[in-house]
């Protein structure tokens, strides 16, 4: 989608968050010298086009009880990675699933799947389900748990 | 965090309407007053229970780029390097993880060529190699976490 200057101004005004006032779109409009109608139409269009994934709350995983946030990584045969990635992505507890490049020799893993659990046992159960699904096509695997959130701001564009 | 907070967190992860009085609409759906929703939402943000609330922009759909990258940071330099990495506005997320590659961050840039330039700057300022792992294929991004 081609963004114009006004779209960019709206993105810039809302990337840190939506105003917590009764009429938030009106508030953004006033700040930018637009009408609320214009702001709503443009944001709806950006949402339709996928520029806005969604307007939503992002919880801090830890603070809502998810202490085991594991990036599970797998070294699978290149010829199987696409088929396996699609199957892993269908598991209900997987939040992200990607094929990514290896960096040999340090990093042999090419399939990534994120899991989130409130207990270590739950996390291990989830990882075991992935391992079973991947079966003999896995050569090596690792789980990298996050130990600290260092930054979580989302995308920022310059003003 | 009480049951009403949990309702708010779960509801607002699903999305938020674009209309004149969106908070009133969500508050009615949850069964609380609009003011209460606004106050609780402010508290959840102030307390860091919510990292953010608002539109989530998609760098690639804007014509930009996204990548996941990792660093192998000597333990004694961890805080210093975190500060360098976090100082780039293109760094959208950064996590410490229990591996020799112990710092993992997401770059979201407006233009694709900025990825390479930010990586070069991080490598120079931190004096460390960045392991760049742009996605080859995306199979799924989603899932809401129930509070």
UniProtKB/TrEMBL annotation, chain A:
Siroheme decarboxylase NirL-like HTH domain location: 7-53
Reaction catalysis annotation: siroheme + 2 H(+) = 12,18-didecarboxysiroheme + 2 CO2
Superkingdom of this protein's organism: Bacteria
SMART domains documented for this protein: HTH_ASNC
EC category name: lyase
Pathway per the UniProt entry: Porphyrin-containing compound metabolism
Signal peptide residues on this chain, from the entry's feature table: none
Residues that span the membrane, as ranges: none
Keywords: Lyase
Record-annotated Siroheme decarboxylase AsnC-like ligand binding domain positions: 63-151
Complex and partners: Probably forms a complex composed of NirD, NirL, NirG and NirH. All proteins are required for the total conversion of siroheme to didecarboxysiroheme.
Task of the protein: Involved in heme d1 biosynthesis. Catalyzes the decarboxylation of siroheme into didecarboxysiroheme.
Family: Belongs to the Ahb/Nir family.
Name of the molecule in the record: siroheme decarboxylase
Lineage, top ranks: Bacteria, Pseudomonadati, Pseudomonadota, Gammaproteobacteria, Methylococcales
From TrEMBL, chain B:
Native source species: Methylomonas methanica (strain DSM 25384 / MC09)
Enzyme Commission number: 4.1.1.111
Protein name as annotated: siroheme decarboxylase
Keyword 4Fe-4S: no
Cross-referenced InterPro entries: AsnC_trans_reg2 (IPR040523), HTH-Siroheme_Decarb (IPR050684), NirdL-like_HTH (IPR053953), WH-like_DNA-bd_sf (IPR036388)
MF term (GO), any: lyase activity
Function of the molecule: Involved in heme d1 biosynthesis. Catalyzes the decarboxylation of siroheme into didecarboxysiroheme.
Gene3D superfamilies given in the database record: 3.30.70.3460, Winged helix-like DNA-binding domain superfamily/Winged helix DNA-binding domain
Pfam short name (any one): NirdL-like_HTH
Pathway: Porphyrin-containing compound metabolism
Family membership noted in the UniProt record: Belongs to the Ahb/Nir family.
Principal EC category: lyase
Siroheme decarboxylase AsnC-like ligand binding domain mapped to chain residues: 67-139
Location of the Siroheme decarboxylase NirL-like HTH domain: 5-50
Subunit structure: Probably forms a complex composed of NirD, NirL, NirG and NirH. All proteins are required for the total conversion of siroheme to didecarboxysiroheme.
PANTHER family referenced in this protein's UniProt entry, alphabetically: SIROHEME DECARBOXYLASE NIRL SUBUNIT, TRANSCRIPTIONAL REGULATOR, ASNC FAMILY
Catalytic function, reaction form: siroheme + 2 H(+) = 12,18-didecarboxysiroheme + 2 CO2
Keywords annotated in UniProt: Lyase
């Amino acid at each position: 989608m081609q963004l114009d200057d006004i779209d960019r101004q709206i993105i810039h005004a809302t990337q840190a968050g939506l105003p917590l006032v009764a009429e938030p779109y009106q508030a953004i409009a006033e700040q930018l010298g637009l009408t609320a109608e214009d702001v709503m139409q443009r944001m709806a269009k950006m949402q339709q086009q996928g520029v806005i994934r969604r307007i939503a709350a992002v919880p801090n995983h830890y603070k809502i009880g998810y202490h085991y946030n594991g990036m599970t990584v797998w070294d699978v045969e290149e010829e199987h990675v696409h088929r396996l990635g699609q199957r892993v992505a269908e598991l209900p507890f997987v939040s992200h699933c990607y094929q990514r490049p290896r960096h040999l020799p340090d990093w042999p893993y090419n399939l990534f799947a994120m899991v989130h659990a409130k207990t270590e046992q739950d996390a291990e159960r989830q990882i075991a389900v992935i391992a079973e699904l991947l079966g003999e096509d896995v050569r090596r695997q690792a789980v990298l748990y996050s130990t600290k959130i260092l930054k979580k701001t989302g995308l920022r564009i310059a003003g | 965090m009480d049951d009403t907070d949990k309702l708010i967190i779960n509801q607002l992860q699903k999305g938020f309407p674009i209309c004149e009085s969106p908070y009133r609409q969500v508050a009615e759906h949850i069964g609380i007053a609009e003011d209460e929703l606004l106050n609780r939402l402010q508290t959840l943000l102030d307390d860091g229970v919510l990292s953010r609330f608002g539109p989530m922009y998609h760098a690639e759909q804007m014509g930009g780029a996204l990548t996941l990258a990792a660093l192998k940071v000597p333990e004694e330099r961890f805080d210093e390097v975190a500060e360098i990495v976090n100082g780039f506005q293109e760094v959208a997320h950064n996590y410490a993880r229990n591996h020799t590659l112990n710092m993992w961050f997401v770059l979201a840039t407006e233009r694709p060529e900025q990825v390479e330039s930010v990586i070069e700057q991080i490598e120079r300022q931190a004096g460390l190699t960045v392991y760049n792992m742009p996605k080859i294929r995306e199979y799924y991004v989603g899932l809401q976490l129930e509070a």
